[in-house]
Amino acid sequence: MNMYLEGFTHYLVYEKELSKNTLESYKRDISQFKDFLEERNIENIKNVNKTTIITYLLHLQKIGKATSTISRNLASIRSFCQFLLNEKYIEKDPTIHLESPKAEKKLPAVLTLKEVELLLSQPDDQNAKGMRDKAMLELLYATGIRVSELVALDCAHINLDMGYIKCCGSHLKERIIPVGAIAKKAMKKYIKNARENLLKEEMEQALFVNYYGTRLTRQGFWKIIKKYTSKAQINKKITPHTLRHSFATHLIQNGADLKSVQEMLGHSDISTTQVYTLLTKNKIKEVYNKAHPRA
Questions:
Q1: Residue 88 class from Cβ within 10 Å (0-12 exposed, 13-18 middle, 19+ buried)?
Q2: Residue range 141-149: average pLDDT?
Q3: Where are the domains of the chain?
Q4: Catalytic amino acids?
C-alpha cells in the first residue's frame, strides 16, 4: 500500500499541481483509509470493492465524523481509485455510482443590528490600535469582504473620496464595493491619525498593519475579534466571518436584491448567496409567531 500512496502523492504534486493544504488533506485521508484496510487485513488493493468503501464511510460516521468530512474522504478515495485505474493497478473503479452523503445545510450565525452596534462600539478609537480596530470592524460590516481580503488590502485599493474599495477575491476576481458613511469616517480617522504611528517602514503598502508595522494577518485579526466579542459580552459564537454573514442578511432583510448582494460578496454562484434569504424567511416567521394573536 505504501507504494501506491507514494505514487498517488507524486501524481497529486506533479500532475494535479494541488495547493499545499489540499495535498495534505488528500494524503491524510488516504493514509487513514490505508490504516483501515490494514486493520482488516486487506493488503491487496484489488480486493478493495464498493462494499469496503461503504463500510469505511459508515465507520467514519460511527466515530462521529461530520458529513462534510465523510464527503471529503470519499472525494479523496475517488481520486485515489482514479489514479490506480489510470496506472492499471486495478481494473475497475469501486467508487463508481457511490454518492456523497448529503450535508445538512447549516445556516450561518448572524448578529442582530443591536449586537453589531455593540460589537463595533467596543474599540477605543482614542488610540492608534483602537482606531485601526474600529476601522477594520466597520469596514468588514460595511462591505461584507472576507477577512483574507481585508488583511490583503493595500492603501492603493481604497478611494474614500469616491466611497469605494477595490477588492481581489478568489480566482483573482476583482470587484468594486461601496463603503458607507460611518465606515468611511472610521477609515479616514485611522489613516490620518493612526496608521503612520503604527508603521515602521514608510514603504509598507498594507492598509492595516500590526504592532511590528507589517501587514496584519488573519490570525492577528482573529485575536482582535475575540477580544472585542468578549468585551461586548455577546452570548454568541462570533467568528471573523460573522460580520460578513450579518452584512448580507441585513441587506436582504432591508430589500437589497440578491444579484447585487452576490456581486458585493464575490460569490461565483448565486445559490451560495441564497442561503441568506432562508435567514430572512426565518426572521419573518419569528416576527409573525411573536406578533400575530393567532400564531
A1: exposed
A2: 93
A3: 2-86, 113-290
A4: 146, 241, 244, 267, 276
- Report which residue type is found at 133: D
Domain spanning 2-86: CATH 1.10.150.130: yes
User: Pick from 257, 152, 196, 138: which is nearest to 265 by CA?
Assistant: 257
Cβ within 8 Å of residue 196, ≥6 positions away: none
The helix-helix angle for 50-62 and 20-39 (nearest 10°) equals 100
Given a cut of 60, is residue 292 above it in pLDDT?
no
Instruction: Name which CATH class applies to 113-290.
Output: mainly alpha
Predicted pLDDT at 128: 96
List all residues 6 or more positions away from 44 whose beta carbon is below 8 Å from its beta carbon: none
Whole-number average pLDDT of the chain: 88
DSSP 75-107: HHHHHHHHHHHHTTS-SS-TTTTPPPPPPP-PP
- Residues 244, 248, 249: CA angle, nearest 5 degrees: 115
The answer to whether the beta carbons of residues 221 and 136 sit under 8 Å apart is yes
Most confident of 23-27, 106-110, 180-184: 180-184
Q: State the cell numbers at 4.
A: 501506491
Question: Helices in 194-257 by DSSP H: which ranges?
Answer: 195-198, 218-232, 242-253
> DSSP assignment, residue 40?
T
Are the beta carbons of 114 and 227 closer than 8 angstroms?
A: no
Task: Evaluate whether 101 touches 71 at the Cβ level (below 8 Å).
Answer: yes
**Is the distance from CB of 72 to CB of 25 less than 8 angstroms?**
yes
DSSP E strands: which ranges in 88-173?
A: 158-159, 164-168
